[in-house]
Amino acid sequence: MPSRVRSGEASDAISTAGLGVLGAVAEGRTHGFAVAALFATDGDLGRVWRIPRAVVYRELGRLEAAGLVRPVGIETDGPGPDRTVVQVTASGRRGLHAWLDEPVPRPRDARSALLLKLALLDRSARDPSTLIAAQREVFTARLERLRADAAAAEAGSFDQTLALWRVSSTQAVLDFLAMLMN
């Protein structure tokens, strides 16, 4: 689910991939090739969220257009073509920090967006406790609603099966978050 990141007067929907790229750029001046390496299958962030090189470059263009990153130079040494070096803007950093503290809405987003947020928080040496606490609050309330749905569903129906799956998935994420707090 795209998040809203404010850029100047305009508000643009930035995809999770774009926010991941923004998080990588926020670590320091870099270029698209280096960011793509982080999100490659064997990259540090690719273990959590794989972003193909073409998507990294597309997202960098979108982030620049939104005023969240800006070019700061050209790297001409090394193999391959010249590379545009970018850095995060103040607006980009504010938007990134807001997104990193925002809980994901559904348990299915925990495997992707939540783990990406936790990885970026770890890489930036930021305390994840604000995100974890907010995430526990969201999923605790969700679990109560899901348990009521499961209890109200007709026994043996697919509605009950689906409700029980959602209860189990939500509880699993809550158990995971509890382990992180220890």
TrEMBL record:
Source species, domain of life: Bacteria
Protein name per the record: PadR family transcriptional regulator
